[in-house]
Design goal:
- The protein has helices at 12-18, 30-38, 57-62, 87-93, 133-136, 149-156, 162-171, 177-190, 196-203, and strands at residues 27-28, 49-53, 69-75, 78-81, 96-101, 106-114, 116-117, 120-122, 130-132, 137-139, 145-147.
- The protein is of the alpha+beta class.
- The chain folds into two domains: 1-147, Beta Polymerase, domain 2 (2-Layer Sandwich), CATH 3.30.460; 149-204.
- Helix 2 (30-38) packs antiparallel against helix 6 (149-156).
- The longest helix has 14 residues, at 177-190.
- The protein is globular, with a radius of gyration of 17 Å.
């Protein structure tokens, strides 16, 4: 079994500094988004994920050019260079793009390219789930944009890894009723009968 790819992930603060001059809406996703919502670090984070509208992702990719940086797309457990012969195909098939830092010899950022219709976010797992981008993104007390926790938890529900269960447990008490209602409805649509629905009912 091959060793996992090395990561020296940026923190959300570092990402905000690196992206300060990139004119595109972006937001921290994954477990870091939960921590930004809560205002504290609740667990260790292996990587850093951010979301950008897919139609504007090229602005982020262009901000980190070779030779200092290299973009890769994970597909079926294999990392493919974006500047390879199938770069356009990879972008069309996959939503993740990993940024390799030559200086660090490690990956530092994972960019999720999210479907959208103008300024409307479209859930990549269920296209009938749509919200204005302004409702999808919140801002931390330090001014860092992050994906709303109910949306983060919807994506985490697919895998239910230990870190996903930990994020649910720590975040659920902090969700207001509109957020819980949205997550309940979205889970029923995307993952009917999911066991997290019971947790939501108990928290109400």
């Amino acid at each position: 079994m091959s060793a996992p790819p090395p990561w020296q992930a940026w923190t959300p603060d570092e990402a905000a500094c690196r992206l300060a001059d990139v004119d595109v809406h972006w937001a921290v996703a994954g477990g870091w988004a939960i921590d930004l919502h809560l205002g504290r670090t609740t667990r260790d984070h292996h990587d850093l994920e951010i979301c950008v509208p897919a139609g504007r992702a090229d602005m982020v990719l262009a901000a980190f050019p070779a030779p200092r940086w290299s973009w890769h797309v994970p597909e079926s457990g294999v990392l493919h260079p974006l500047d390879g012969p199938d770069g356009a195909g990879l972008l069309a098939r996959e939503h993740q793009t990993w940024l390799w830092s030559v200086d660090d010899g490690a990956y530092v950022l994972d960019v999720f390219r999210e479907p959208h219709d103008g300024d409307t976010w479209i859930c990549r797992r269920e296209e009938t789930l749509r919200r204005p981008l302004a409702e999808v993104i919140s801002t931390s007390t330090a001014g860092i944009p992050y994906v709303r926790p109910e949306i983060v938890l919807l994506f985490k529900a697919k895998y239910c890894r230990p870190q996903d269960e930990a994020d649910l447990a720590v975040c659920l008490p902090a969700l207001d009723e509109p957020a819980r209602a949205w997550l309940r409805s979205a889970l029923q649509l995307v993952h009917p009968g999911h066991r997290w629905l019971d947790a939501l009912d108990e928290a109400s």
